[in-house]
Amino acid sequence: MPTLGELERAVMETLWSATGPVTARDVQDALAGRDLATTTVLTVLGRLERKGLVTREREGRAHRYRAVASREDHVAELMRDALSAAPDRGAALARFLGSIPPDERAALRELLD
């Protein structure tokens, strides 16, 4: 799973929050507090597309972008990658489970049953 820089994460959050495909201008508007140029947004979207996280579709003269997978799918893949990098998966899982709040442990138990 490719790692994301801070701006890439912000763009992905915008795509995940959108109700459908969005233009670069839509992303730029959503990140208005950052004062980004359209070319910067297009560069980031292009990088995310090359990483396989975003697809684009032509609509008239513009492109519309959308995330390939949901935020939850992305997080699950990151967790699988992190776990697969651990020499002792059982120990890594035990540490993880010991670090989460009791209500989340209970939710995990329910999911496993």
Automatic annotation (TrEMBL):
GO terms for biological process: negative regulation of DNA-templated transcription. It comes from the Bacteria. InterPro entries: BlaI_family, WH-like_DNA-bd_sf, WH_DNA-bd_sf. SUPFAM superfamilies: Winged helix' DNA-binding domain. Keywords: DNA-binding, Transcription, Transcription regulation. Pfam families: Penicillinase_R (PF03965). One of its GO terms (molecular function) is DNA binding. Belongs to the BlaI transcriptional regulatory family. This is Putative transcriptional regulator.
